[in-house]
Design goal:
424 residues, alpha+beta, SH3 type barrels, Fumarylacetoacetate hydrolase, domain 2, 8-stranded mixed sheet, 5-stranded antiparallel sheet, 9 helices, 26 strands, 26% strand, globular, binds calcium ion
């Protein structure tokens, strides 16, 4: 077992019940305050631990990190140090935060300097993403979309159970939770019998996804095998891959998604390490027909991560609209990474690979409005009145995720984004 995951550990920092951030989590992020420049932090309870200050005060002795790795506006330098280094760092932080270790907790002037209330900080985009790839790995989602657009008989394309289908997305428009986005405009075709028009999307949707950031992978020409894939995965975030269904529908033939997707995708601010998810492994769905040898694996490669989506209309309370789980994914993260590199494509530190919409088997577990409202035929009632087929102006979409194995609960915080009216 990874020592920092020990369920018996408690922290001298108060951790409220049902907090996403007990000592067994210790996710990394980047924050700033009115006084402090951007820097790397770790969440614990309702606080954040300032790693730059900890290093300056001498708490990271014998770890392969220097001040510049934390005195920076992204996790890229930290990620570039590789898995052994970040695992050691998380282990050191766990030790410093343990109730039964006094090194830091008894030095009150150091604690005052390093431990900051989360209410006082602003989180910024955790990683400068070089390349972003989006998969399509939920069989329930792919089947639902297939039924809607091609009928039940041809729901899954012939390649789907053989290839973790994906496409290259746009990294420049990835934003951190809390960043509002404007409703996109583009070519839409409201009437099948008439030419397209230019206008604001009328079928704006979210996609409930999770994504993972890679460590520096391998040079161009080399591949990452299934059995080494986990060594190249740093951590996992919630991911809302906003989608304009009407723009998407008109543009996607023959080269796939483009402007219906690249106007924005939102990531959660805290990156939960793959190490912290270790206790929540579960077996994935049986893959039948058998996959090609380069995608074969042994052991449990899925993770039991409970996911929720809520809509908060302006001046209204939230309405919970979906309960899903990452464990439903047909293709796991390792298979995505192995497939991505099987042709020799290189990945670099801080690349983002997203899961694709995570839909479960039941109607209340779908991961998009397209499916939840079944193309707009089944509007969803809002608690505060009104209904939604797709996302309205000034709606906030909030996604949350956590793991709970009965012993320890760890979470991802949330990914939140508001849709503002389109710009003229
Ligand atoms: Ca997507």
């Amino acid at each position: 077992m990874i020592a920092a995951n020990n369920p018996q550990l408690t922290s001298w920092v108060e951790v409220p019940e049902n907090s996403d951030f007990p000592i067994q989590n210790l996710p990394f992020g980047v924050f700033q305050t009115k006084q402090l420049t951007p820097r790397v932090g770790v969440a614990i309870g309702n606080k954040v631990l300032d790693l730059k200050s900890l290093l300056v005060l001498g708490y990271f002795e014998n770890l392969p990190f220097e001040k510049e790795d934390f005195d920076t506006d992204s996790l890229n330098r930290l990620i570039s140090k590789g898995k052994l280094a970040t695992r050691e760092l998380r282990g050191r932080l766990s030790k410093l935060l343990r109730s039964d270790v006094s090194d830091l907790q008894n030095k009150h002037h150091h604690v005052d300097q390093c431990l900051i209330d989360q209410s006082e900080i602003e989180m910024i985009l955790p990683v400068q993403v070089g390349d972003y790839t989006d998969f399509y790995s939920s069989i329930e989602h792919a089947t639902n979309v297939g039924i809607m657009f091609r009928g039940k008989e041809n729901a899954l394309m012939p390649n789907w159970k053989h290839i973790p289908v994906g496409y290259h997305g746009r990294s420049s428009s990835i934003v951190v939770s809390g960043t509002p986005l404007h409703r996109p405009k583009g070519q839409i075709k409201p009437n099948d019998d008439e030419p397209p028009i230019y206008g604001a999307s009328r079928l704006l949707d979210f996609e409930l996804e999770m994504g993972f950031f890679t460590y520096p992978g391998k040079p161009l020409g080399q591949r990452i095998n299934m059995d080494e894939a986990e060594e190249h995965i740093f951590g996992v975030v919630l991911f809302n891959d906003w989608s304009a269904r009407d723009i998407q529908k008109w543009e996607y033939v023959p080269l796939g998604p483009f402007l219906g997707k690249n106007f924005g995708s939102t990531v959660s601010a805290w990156v939960v390490t793959l190490d912290a998810l270790e206790p929540y492994r579960v077996a994935g769905p049986v893959q039948d027909p058998p996959v090609l040898p380069y995608l074969e694996y042994e052991g449990a490669k899925n993770y039991d991560i409970k996911l929720q989506v809520a809509i908060k209309p302006q001046n209204q309370e939230e309405t919970l609209i979906s309960n899903s789980n990452l464990k439903y994914m047909y293709w796991n993260m390792c298979q995505q990474l192995a497939h991505h590199t099987v042709n020799g494509c290189n990945v670099r530190g801080g690349d983002l690979l997203a899961s694709g919409t995570i839909s479960g088997p039941t109607e209340d577990s779908y991961g998009s409005m397209l499916e939840l409202s079944w193309r707009g035929t089944k509007p969803l009632a809002m608690n505060g009145g009104g209904e939604r087929k797709f996302i309205a102006d000034n709606d906030e979409v909030i996604m949350r995720g956590h793991c709970d194995n009965g012993e320890v609960r760890i979470g991802f915080g949330e990914v939140r984004g508001k849709i503002l009216p389109s710009i003229d």
